[in-house]
Model the fold of this input.
Amino acid sequence: MLAFIFTPLGKAIGAAALALAVFSSAFLYGKSVGRQGAAVEALERSVEVLRERSEINDQVSSSDAADLCGSMGLSEQDRLECVRRLVEADPKPGHVGDDPEG
Done:
């Protein structure tokens, strides 16, 4: 068996096996790096979406009913109905649409 390794055919087979091992390990490493990069990009996008959602929630929470309904581009009658419904649905007293003057 040892004698076969030192023959020209044995050397060719050994070189081919070594090349295959190097190529396959490099290929698998590249795939794992690619997967890891894709996972990082997906996580970064998720964080960005959550930050945007948080900003929108803060804007909506701090707006009054008239501002919210006005930003929807409703007609005057629909805007008044929207304000009425938001005021009725507001669980926090003194928040959305609360008018201290009556």
